[in-house]
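Lab meeting notes turned into a lecture example. A postdoc, R.K., suggested we walk through two folding results consecutively so the class can see how the record format repeats. The first protein's sequence and structure tokens come next.
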Amino acid sequence: MLKNTFVDNIYCNELDTDIKGFLRADQLKILREHSTVGYVLQGMEFRPDKVAAYYLGDERLGWAISAASGFINGIKDYREGRKISIPTNEAFILLGE
């Protein structure tokens, strides 16, 4: 069983192959420990790309906000007014981004 979230490649014993798109537990910890508080603003509901563009300046970083916030339901977690965790620049430096 996999105990990770997305981004890095993880070896899956059950399938005997690497699975692309997973975060290791240590990477997830960095994102959660090095973040600030934000909120899903009006006009950004169900749009992690817009949230990432607003807070991080890059619409491709929605995955980082989802991971730091502990979201597991995809865009459904992005409800207007919901408190979210925004990874800091330090988090990305520590991740090697």
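The second example is placed directly after the first for contrast:
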Amino acid sequence: MSQDASRAVVISNPQGLHLRPAHGVVTLASGFQAAIQVSREDGEVADGKSMLSLFTLGAAEGTQLVVRAIGEDADSAVQELADFLEKLEDLNIDEGAS
């Protein structure tokens, strides 16, 4: 039976959802069978398994996003992805890191 789960998060990283954190989202999302969507409050929706699609969101610091998953592992997918997005600032992921 297919599950549907979602959770709102706010981007706290001062650099927003740039290359490295977007890659992290795609890497995490790709480990789940569920379809993953990330959307903005204005209704723009991105495929959570596509870096290009995530970049179209233009998610700067303070942007509220909703992570949604549909599939057998939807609950765990949303939990892991939302936790990752909420902790971007704490993870020290920035463009200058090597």
